[in-house]
Design brief:
The chain is of the alpha+beta class. 58% of the residues lie in helices and 16% in strands. It has a five-stranded antiparallel sheet with strand order 2-1-5-4-3, sandwiched between helices. Strand 1 and strand 2 form a beta hairpin. Helix 3 (64-74) runs antiparallel to helix 5, helix 6 (143-197) packs across helix 7 (201-215) and helix 6 (143-197) packs across helix 8 (219-229). The longest helix is centred in the C-terminal third of the chain and has 55 residues, at 143-197.
Length: 233
C-alpha cells in the first residue's frame, strides 16, 4: 500500500468524529480500529496518563489491555519509555528487550505479541498518553507506518483535550446557571416576605438571612421553603 493510500485508509475511519464533553472511550476505539485496519495490525491499545501516572486503557482486542496495563505496576515498558523521552519506541521483537522490560515482555509473549510500537499522544506541549501498535510476528516498523501512527496519536490527543475543555465549559455553564437560578429564587422569596411583612426587599432579605443563620441552613434553602413550601418568617 502506498504512503498516501495508507494515510487515507487510516483517516477514513475518523470521518465525522467530533468531540463531545467527557466523550473519550468511543473516540479511542475509533482510532484503535482505524490504526488496526490501516496498518494491518494484531491490535492496538491506548494508555492514558492521569496525574502523571498511566491509567485508563482502551484496547482491541480486549486481551491486549493486559499487555498495556502490565507497564503500570512494573513502571517499565515501551509505552512508559515513549512517554518519558517523548519519542516513539519501535521494537521488532519484544523478546529481545526482556532484560529491560521483563514483566511486560512476559505478558506480551503470553498473549502472542511479538512486535510493538508505542507512540506518544501529544498535542502541542501536552502529552496525554501513548498509542500502542501490536503485531503477532516480528516486524520492522517503517517510517510511513510510524508517521501514520504519530498522526493518529496526535489527532487523538487533540480530541481528548478538546473534550476535556468542553467538559470544563459545560461544568462552568451549569454552575453559572445554578447561581442564576438561586438568585432568581432568592429574589422571589424577598418579594413574598416583603409583601407579607409590608417592608422593603432589602429588609426582607435580612430577615431571610437571619432565619438561615439561626437554623444553620443556606439562604437558598430558606428561599426555597418560602417560594415552594409556603414558609413564612
Amino acid at each position: 500500500m502506498s504512503d498516501s493510500a495508507l494515510l487515507v485508509t487510516a483517516l477514513s475511519g475518523l470521518v465525522g468524529l467530533l468531540p463531545e464533553p467527557g466523550d473519550v472511550i468511543e473516540p479511542l476505539h475509533r482510532v484503535i480500529d482505524s490504526a488496526t485496519d490501516a496498518l494491518d495490525l494484531a491490535g492496538c491499545a491506548v494508555l492514558l496518563v492521569a496525574d502523571g501516572h498511566p491509567g485508563v486503557v482502551a484496547a482491541t482486542p480486549a486481551a491486549l489491555a493486559e499487555v498495556a496495563l502490565s507497564q503500570r505496576s512494573s513502571e517499565r515498558g515501551p509505552a512508559l519509555d515513549a512517554l518519558r523521552h517523548g519519542e516513539p519506541v519501535a521494537v521488532a521483537d519484544v523478546r529481545e528487550r526482556h532484560a529491560a522490560w521483563p514483566e511486560y515482555t512476559s505478558v506480551a509473549v503470553r498473549h502472542g505479541v511479538c512486535a510493538v510500537a508505542e507512540i506518544p499522544m501529544r498535542s502541542g506541549a501536552t502529552t496525554v498518553g501513548a498509542l500502542g501498535l501490536y503485531a503477532y510476528d516480528p516486524r520492522e516498523w517503517t517510517e510511513p507506518e510510524l508517521s501514520v501512527g504519530a498522526l493518529l496519536a496526535g489527532m487523538t490527543a487533540g480530541h481528548i483535550l478538546t473534550a476535556e475543555r468542553l467538559r470544563a465549559q459545560q461544568r462552568l455553564t451549569e454552575q453559572l446557571q445554578h447561581a442564576l437560578d438561586s438568585r432568581v429564587l432568592v429574589e422571589q422569596a424577598k418579594g413574598v416576605i416583603a409583601n407579607a411583612r409590608n417592608t422593603t426587599p432589602q429588609a426582607a432579605y435580612e430577615l431571610i438571612r437571619a432565619h438561615a443563620r439561626r437554623n444553620r441552613v443556606s439562604v437558598h434553602a430558606v428561599a426555597g421553603g418560602i417560594v415552594e413550601l409556603g414558609l413564612r418568617i
